[in-house]
Amino acid sequence: MKCHKIIVSAGGTGGHIIPALNISKSLLKRGISVCYIGNKDSMEQTIIEKNGISFFAIDVQKLYRAWTMKHFLFPYKLLKAINQCTAYIYEQKPDAFIGFGGFVSGAPALAAKKLKIPVYLQEQNAKPGITNYFTGKFADTAFLAYPESVRYFKKCTSIITGNPINIDMANNLRDGNVRMPDRASVHSQGNKRVLILGGSQGSMFINKLILKNIELFESEKIDIVWQTGRSHLQNIDSELKKMEVKPQISITTFDFTDKIEDMYTTVDYVIARSGAMSLAEIESYRLPVFMIPLVTAAVNEQYHNAIWMQNKEFGMMFEQKDQELFPTRFKDFMAKASQMHQSKEPSRHLSATETIVDTLIQNIERKKG
Question: I need a surface site. Which of 8, 165, 301, 333 has the fewest CB within 10 A?
């Protein structure tokens, strides 16, 4: 195969950056050269450069929902970024561009289209963010995680792929290499176990909700494995000491882990936000999930993700405004958990990376003849 090159772009949050990184790594393994465009001094720059991938920094800003004087800088920075990306892409002469969302991916997508480079996008959520929705107006192909997203991308070819989770995680699950441990060996006194996730920064709302309802977990004999977030760990541990939690349950707190797959294999339930990539992993492990959508998400995408998962009987949605009903709703969730994930079909996310990379390479090869 001839040496090909693909420009990748995503930024803003891990929900955009991680799938972009997973695809980039897979492309590199297949002998494809990857150049990544992202915002300077950003999360994506730190993550991408740490993984040894070529990074080109631009300076763009998002449109804030609340009025700010920074809005006056938006058109200037956008035009400057488009010109920077046009010069860079022209110099690199890539075979394709793929964006994964986040405001930073808009400028290189426009530049690629201007230079007649095939434009692809990957949308993680059931309802797309503003940048991917806009890019879909002129993109060639959209790789989608949810079938419901097709209606937002009528002007380009849509392929339902799922979300590109970590390739090693996907391969181990697909090949049956994940050993599900004996529950009795990891659960204290035969208790059920719940994993609580709030992202790398943690969720203040979820943390407060769990603290407020510790007695529920005690009465139901549910052990807690709790990812608090780095800034909340010390306070949570202090509050738990004051409560004198009963010895019939165990509570394990930690700030963050890059070995989340080890956690998935030792729990019965998950309480989490409904970010697309977290749900893709949880679904792949066939874990019942109690979803609490983030109400400040850009286009309320977490709510739509949770609705889809609930309709498929993969989990149950719980809205923040109903926090006083948590004990009743969580008991209802546990009662229904055994009926979730009844489908025998493997998760679409397990083959997402392979499908996306294969399609990109095949289309490049076809174009070049």
Answer: 333
Contact 261, 169 (CB under 8 A): yes
| First-last CA distance in the chain | 12
pLDDT in tens, 55-73: 999 998 765 555 566 656 7
Helix, strand, or coil (residue 41): coil
The 10 Å CB-count burial string (b at 16+, else e) for 241-280 is eeeebeeebebebebeeeebbebbebbbbbbbbbbbbbbb
CB 200 within 8 A of CB 222: no
pLDDT tens, position by position, 293-348: 998 877 899 999 999 999 999 999 999 999 999 999 999 999 999 999 988 888 99
What global pTM score does this model have?
A: 0.92
The CATH number assigned to the domain holding 79 equals 3.40.50.2000
* Beta-carbon contacts of residue 203 (< 8 Å; ≥ 6 apart): 229, 273, 292, 294
Convert the pLDDT of each residue in 270-292 to its tens digit: 999 999 999 999 999 999 999 99
Q: How far apart are CA 321 and CA 325, in angstroms?
A: 9
Question: Using an 8 Å Cβ cutoff, are 156 and 136 in contact?
Answer: yes
Structure tokens given for 136: 């879909």
Q: Is the dihedral of CA 136, 128, 84, 117 positive or negative?
A: negative
Cα 310 from chain centre: 18
| Residue 128 and residue 101 in one domain | yes
Helices 14-29 + 167-174 axis angle, to 10 = 70
Range of the domain at 193: 184-343
Tell me, yes or no, whether 24 and 135 share the same domain: yes
The single residue listed with the structure tokens 């289309």 is: 363
Q: Count CB atoms within 10 A of the CB of residue 72.
A: 8
> How many structural domains are present in the chain?
2
d(CA 299, CA 283): 22
Residues 16 and 115 grouped into a single domain: yes
